[in-house]
Design a protein that fits this description.
Elements lengths: L4 H33 L9 H4 L3 E2 L2 E2 H32 L2 H47 L9 H13 L18 H4 L24 H4 L11 H10 L2 H35 L1
Antiparallel strand pairs: 1-2
Length: 271
């Protein structure tokens, strides 16, 4: 199947585009793997807390695990589609290019829908997550240790790993823990040791009255909601950059594939 000069340029352009596609696929695949192995938030100790938070029937624990898997699958899918487009362009295979153009067009529309839904629902997601976190802290935080109670342990591990305290930032002895079941037992401490620099290895022996009892110094000033949000957002700029680049390149890929298919069709008719 012969191509005109513009068709050959389009073929070369499509091959280059799909090489970029492959790199962007890796750009989703690699962070997905990193999220999967990053145990700061998604680990066995913190998971019981995440499984108590839900939206629309989906728990945050399942969503956290599912997100990394989704990114890995999405990255692999993009790599396969890019290979299809590059192979179709190199072989000047009209059928493969048509399938490629359809897949990319559907994928482009799906991305636009997801972006719109995210901006529409983002405020609700954030406010609902924060409200549920506060409710879980006040209703289910019962012990300042790492063994007695699963959800209390989850909160303490979260504070240790992310160096945070409470849901909102702690600024004094009056804080989110005041309404907790733990405080109803009138302990000496106003905030847990996890908020004051205690580690897993020294938790039972750790002591810092200026932090735990009077909350005057040594406590983590960041709330755990903000800490989790910041942790998630460390990946956001990368994903936004990859997403915007994908949208632009997908349009170019569709145009190039259609141009090659058009010329291929005209050549076939002439034959």
């Amino acid at each position: 199947m012969g191509l005109s000069c513009s068709g050959k340029v389009g073929m070369l352009f499509l091959i280059i585009i799909n090489i970029i596609f492959m790199l962007l696929g890796l750009g989703l695949l690699i962070p997905g793997i990193l999220v999967q192995v990053n145990v700061d938030i998604v680990n066995d100790k913190v998971m019981p807390l995440l499984n108590q938070l839900s939206l629309g029937g989906l728990t945050f624990g399942n969503a956290a695990n599912g997100l990394s898997v989704t990114l890995i699958i999405l990255g692999a899918f993009i790599l396969l589609v890019a290979a299809l487009g590059a192979f179709g362009a190199c072989c000047k295979n009209r059928c493969m290019l048509v399938v490629y153009a359809i897949i990319v067009a559907v994928f482009w529309i799906a991305q636009i829908v997801i972006v719109i839904l995210w901006f529409v629902m983002r405020g609700k997601l954030e406010s609902e997550a924060k409200a549920q976190l506060l409710s879980q802290l006040q209703n289910n935080y019962k012990h300042d240790d790492l063994t007695s109670h699963e959800l209390s342990t989850a909160w303490n591990y979260l504070s240790i790993e992310l160096k945070c305290c409470g849901v909102d930032a702690v600024t004094s002895a009056t804080n989110d823990y005041d309404g907790s079941v733990w405080q109803a037992g009138t302990p000496t401490a106003q905030i847990p040791k996890a908020c004051c620099g205690a580690t897993v290895s020294d938790y039972t022996t750790y002591s810092n009255a200026a932090c735990t009892d009077t909350v005057t110094s040594g406590y983590y000033a960041t709330g755990c909601y903000q800490a989790v949000y910041d942790k998630v957002m460390t990946y956001s700029n990368w994903f936004i950059g990859v997403g915007i680049t994908l949208l632009v390149i997908e349009i170019c890929a569709i145009i190039a594939a259609c141009l090659i298919c058009k010329q291929a069709g005209e050549k076939d008719m002439m034959v």
